Amino acid sequence: MTKNTEITKKSLSLALKGPRITEKASLLSGGNVYTFDVPKDFNKIEIAKAVEEIYKVKPVRINVVTVPKKKMTYRGHPGVKGGGRKAMVYLKKGDKIEFV
Predict the structure, then answer these.
(1) Whole-prediction pTM value?
(2) Which among 18, 49, 57, 81 could bridge 70 via Cys, Cβ 3.0 to 4.6 Å?
(3) C-alpha angle with apex 13: 11 to 18, nearest 5 degrees?
(4) How many CA atoms are closer than 13 Å to the CA of 24, on its beta-carbon side?
(5) Rounded distance, CA 93 to CA 30, Å?
(6) d(CA 52, CA 9)
(7) Number of structural domains, the chain?
(8) Strand, coil or helix: 45
(9) Hey, how many other C-beta atoms are within 10 angstroms of the C-beta on 61?
């Protein structure tokens, strides 16, 4: 079984956990760059196929960045804020993604 046949519509819907709503992401969205949280085991090609399938727009470029874990203190107790990965999806000038 090849890797292409393993990618199904169900797994494509799992490729995007959801939009990353931060101040930096909202500033980037003005320039047709949208940021999503993605699982660690998906690559750029799979993320591009998921964006095309779910939002019906074809990405021009995708950057994937690892978000590091951060040490924090909550009510005097040490803890860790979980890291993960984020994908920045670049679209052409006329394309848009609407988040409800």
Answers:
(1) 0.78
(2) 81
(3) 130
(4) 5
(5) 11
(6) 12
(7) 1
(8) helix
(9) 11
Distance CA(51)–CA(71), nearest Å, equals 32
Integer Cα distance of 49 and 27 in angstroms: 25
- Report the C-alpha gap between 38 and 84 in whole angstroms: 8
Phi, psi angle pair for 79, to nearest 5°: -155, 180
Residue 61 is assigned to a structural domain of this protein: yes
User: Does 50 fall in a domain?
Assistant: yes
- pLDDT at position 3, please? 58
Domain residues for the domain of 86 are: 18-90
Tens of pLDDT along 9-20? 557 778 888 898
User: Which among 81, 60, 58 has a CA at the least distance from the CA of 69?
Assistant: 81
Distance CA 27, CA 87 (A): 15
**CATH number for the domain that contains residue 35:** 3.30.70.330
